[in-house]
Each structure stands twice: as structure tokens, then as C-alpha cells.
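Holo prediction. Input below; ligand is 1,6-di-O-phosphono-beta-D-glucopyranose.
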Amino acid sequence: MIQALILDLDGVLCDTAHFHYRAWKRLAESYGYALTYENNEALKGVSRVDSLKRILQWAQTDLSPEQFEADLVLKNNWYLEMVEQMSEADRLPGVGAFVQEAQRRQIPLALGSASKNARLVLEKIQLSGAFQAIVDASQILNGKPHPETFLTAAQLLGTAPEHCLVFEDSLAGIQAALSGGMQAIGIGHASDLPGAKLHLNHLGEYDFADFS
Ligand code: B16
Ligand code: MG
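Structure of the complex:
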């Protein structure tokens, strides 16, 4: 029986996944590499450091430790320029109604994000107060697909993992939920997100009549 919901941020509550893509694509171009749709799917939910490591592998290039750090800062600055423009209007479809319905039913909500910018983005889209627990990249040692993000969220809510349902747009996130003993709903295509028990285009499609 499901007792709590854990939501990913980028790609579930707002379309920051697209901002990450634009910033990584710009950086990859500086290595002479054109980032593809498939590359981007593989980067969703993956930490900033691990994302750059993967891009360097695809681009078959290497950086000094100093340049690696500098390029992480560069990418994040480009990303933050886009985040700075965000507002409540940047919530994905149905997010407001979803949160309201969960609150009306007194279902605990947690955020489980791999982003170090999660709290800033939540503020921008005016959802900081919507969650009983917030877990971001600063609170965990092992990023998705490791289950630590979601297990920490469940622990903060005081809910056993098997009673948690995770909403995720990334393959790494679906894998993290499943390996943590939770059920997962994929926001995106079934072909990109195997293992999810249901696939939706956005949270607005979730029917709370199915909540059980
Ligand atoms: P940052 P999520 C993830 O957030 C993104 O999906 C992923 O593309 C990004 O690289 C990662 O956060 C780290 O983000 O650079 O802001 O720390 O989808 O888990 O909410
Ligand atoms: Mg995501």
C-alpha cells in the first residue's frame, strides 16, 4: 500500500532537464562533440561530475583536473542564467493541482533530486513549502542510480520504502527507485524508462483514484 510520494525535480516538476541539455550541449561543442538525444537521456538524473565524465568519454577527450573543475563551473553558470528567468509559470502541466490533491488527501510528499540547485529551483517555481522532506545532491554520497536519494527521503518522511511511490523522468532515477525497493512511475516514454509501472506525459495525467 502506497503511503507517500517522492518526486524528482528536473523533468517532473519543471523543464529544467531542457536547460541542463542546452548547457551540456554548449560545453560539448567546445570539445568538438555534438550531444545527441540519446546522450541527453543517459545524462538525466546523473550528477554534474558524472555527467561531465560521460561527455568526455563520448567526446574521446580528457581535461586536466583544473580544467575539469572550471568547465563544471562554466556549465553551471550557463544553467543558472536560465534558472534565473524561471517563475511559477515554469511548472510542468498539472503540478499545482497534483500537489494540492496530495495535500487534500494528506499524502506526505518528498523531493528527491540529484541537483545541487534543487532548493533554488524549487524557490523559483514557488514550491519550497510543498514538501515534508527535501533531499538534494548536497545530502547524499551516492547519486542515482544508487537508491540513497530516495531512501533518505523515505527515512525523513518516516515511511518504509515499499510504501513509497517515486515519480521520475530519468532512467537512472527509475533504477534508483527500484533498487531501493520502491515502485516508480515514469514521466516520459516507456522505451526510455523501462521498469516503471506506468508512464505519463506529466504529473497532470496522474489519477489519484489509482493511489493505493
Ligand atoms: P546540478 P533531478 C538532476 O536533477 C538532473 O536530471 C541532471 O541532468 C543533473 O545533471 C543533476 O540533477 C545535477 O544537477 O548540476 O544542478 O547539481 O532530475 O534528479 O532533479
Ligand atoms: Mg529528473
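The two ends are 5 Å apart (CA to CA). That is the main takeaway for now.
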